[in-house]
Design brief:
It contains six helices and four strands; from the N terminus they run ααβααβαββα. By secondary structure, it is α+β, with helices and mostly antiparallel strands. The chain has one domain: Glutaredoxin (3-Layer(aba) Sandwich). A hairpin with a 5-residue loop joins strand 3 and strand 4. Keywords: Signal. It comes from Chryseobacterium daecheongense.
Length: about 150
Amino acid sequence: MKTIISAFLWAVFSIFVHAQSRFDKAQKDAADHHKLIVLNFSGSDWCVPCIKLHKNIIDTENFKQLSTDNVINYINADFPRNKKNQLSPEMKKENALLADQYNAKGLFPYTLLLDSQGKILKTWEGLPAENASAFCKEIKDIYQQKK
């Protein structure tokens, strides 16, 4: 009987672990390691400002260093249109849920800086005016204030 109960509990636990979203994992990691979360809504294959944002900020060493330095967890909620770039149904569902919660207006690109509880600390609508260095400095400054 103990074996059956143990197997059942293990199965339920396994389902729960796999059901966790990227955002849930990012929140837990942010809480455990005192990080912030950068959530970016983009249309990677149709939104020109989104493409520029990724090229000029997200894909830079300055931004990547924020993750390396344990300042942020980065999540990209992408909404591609081209058939060849389509996401898995699970990823589409997760991105839609994030959009419902954080991007009701459907802005692209739209970037949010969140604490580990999901509270919005800062938002950027459209392509930020700052370069990568200034963008990252702003995040670091907010991180230092939250410490």
